[in-house]
Amino acid sequence: MKGNQRPRGAPIAIRDLHxxxxxxxxxxxxxRPQQVSNGEWRCAFxxxxxxxxxxxxxxxxxxxxxxxxxxEGCRVRLESYDGILRWEGGDEGDTxxxxxxxxxxxxxxxxxxxxLIDEEVEKFSVAAEQRGEDTKM
Length: 137
What we know:
- The chain is α+β, with helices and mostly antiparallel strands.
- It has helices spanning 63-79, 107-130, and strands at 11-19, 25-31, 34-37, 40-48, 53-60, 85-87.
- The model has no long low-confidence stretch (mean pLDDT 90).
């Protein structure tokens, strides 16, 4: 059975992105995770345009892992999209989907990556405050 013919669950999150050059819309949907078997879950994510619909599945040992991996799957698939995308409230090239910090390389690795991110956020925040910019979200 093809990937887009399997049951995918109801959408629980939807985002419309705009192609900057044309204002065409790319819609991203993340569906409700579904239990496949004991200890296996899947979560469908759908990227659609006026011309096509691409349904993919992320798998995890529980519903939360499947959901997180589906969101990461959306981000990765959108990176390869032919055209600069923008979401409402974001800059050109920004889909508003943050990169996932993997834990499957071990906690020490994930902690190092998070510390680097925190350090860069702090540097950016301090510099913005020095320029008089509002850094509150």
